[in-house]
Design goal:
Number of helices: 11
Order of helices and strands: EHEEHEEHEHHHHEHEHEEHHEEEE
Structural class: alpha/beta
CATH superfamily of the largest domain: P-loop containing nucleotide triphosphate hydrolases
Strand content: 15-25%
Strand order of the largest sheet: 6-7-8-3-9-10-13-12
Radius of gyration: 21 Å
Number of strands: 14
Distance between the termini: 44 Å
Helix content: 25-40%
CATH class of the largest domain: Alpha Beta
CATH architecture of the largest domain: 3-Layer(aba) Sandwich
Length: about 325
């Protein structure tokens, strides 16, 4: 199990932005546990800290404060040897398969790097292992290995970067908006492959998205964590969050999801006061959503709510958390 305790990530600001304040807090005192085999979708608007959280878990950036542990043991990534070892535990499926593949290298060369660098295969067995891995994600091994990335379709390239992430046989997989740049017609197929390979290998899957429909599809039997300005404001089983959201921010995000024609049940619409992200000052200690919340009270501006359990496994950070009534779309 990977566990984050009070993890904070601050970035130093430069130029004109640094005149008003010296740092920007992307993730703020965040707590999260993630077990192998568990599917978690992290949902929130762009700029809420989702990708920064993913990078910290993957070891691509270090927390400013707080700790990360694996099965109770502290994770330290202060040198190259420790980072290489951690890469065998957590891998990332990048958002853009076009940018993550070297256009002048064949698939064979790109895929072989991880096997050889981590000493997971001899050169004699390399072709066999690469073909088997490609077949596992729905690609023809023999036909794909000697192609360049531009000779593959968008869906094939996405499966290829999934295969590359799986090449080191990790325990946990992070997918950062992995279908956002793909045609709608291809998304379901890629999501299905991602779920299937994760189940086959008993991987923990953390899926970063701004789309509640994708979050539900990925983690229907798992959990959803809703992030706002570096905080997890609501967390719990997927169906519980979607049918009984208690934080006004979650309610407003679900209200913004378009409905398909027909009778559908959804929570009562909640519209925030503003549709722009706040720029919270470092000295502010109130609820991060208070300025946009239509239900905010004076104490919301003075005291930050703590993420606490309201009903079984359903956690929310709101002084006035309450469920909205269900309505039926005609």
């Amino acid at each position: 199990m990977i566990e984050l305790k009070d993890v904070t990530k601050r970035f130093k600001l430069k130029g004109d932005a640094a005149r008003k304040r010296k740092t920007f807090t992307a993730v703020n005192e965040l707590n999260l546990s993630w077990r192998r085999g568990e599917f978690i979708s992290v949902v929130g608007e762009s700029g809420c800290g989702k990708s920064t959280l993913a990078k910290m878990i993957a070891g691509l950036t270090e927390p400013t404060e707080g700790t990360m542990s694996l099965n109770g043991e502290p994770v330290r990534l202060h040198n190259q040897a420790e980072r290489v070892k951690w890469a065998r535990t957590v891998q990332v499926v990048p958002q853009d398969p076009y940018a993550s593949l070297n256009p002048v290298r064949k698939v064979r060369s790109s895929l072989a790097d991880a096997f050889l660098y981590h000493k997971l295969s001899t050169r004699q067995d390399l072709n066999k292992k690469m073909e088997s891995l490609l077949e596992h994600v729905g690609l023809s091994g023999r036909e794909t290995l000697d192609k360049y990335p531009h000779q593959l379709s968008g869906g094939q390239r996405q499966r290829l970067v999934i295969a590359r992430a799986l090449s080191v046989d990790p325990d946990f997989l992070i997918a950062d908006e992995s279908v956002s740049m793909m045609d709608v017609s291809l998304r379901v197929g890629i999501l299905d492959y991602l779920k299937q390979v994760s189940r086959d290998r008993d991987l923990g899957l953390l899926f970063i998205t701004h789309d509640f429909r994708v979050a539900r599809y990925i983690s229907i039997t798992g959990k959803i964590a809703v992030m706002y300005l570096g905080h997890i404001v609501e967390y719990g089983p997927t169906e519980e969050i979607l049918t009984n959201p208690m934080h006004p921010y979650t309610q407003s995000l679900i209200s913004a999801v378009p409905l398909i024609a027909g009778r559908e049940r959804r929570v009562e619409e909640v519209v925030p006061k503003s549709f722009e992200l706040d720029n919270v000052d470092e000295t502010y200690h109130g609820c991060p959503f208070a300025a946009r919340c239509p239900f905010a009270q004076p104490d919301c501006l003075e005291e930050r709510p703590v993420l606490s359990e309201t009903v079984s496994q359903h956690h929310v950070a709101c002084h006035y958390a309450t469920a909205r009534k269900m309505i039926v779309n005609q």
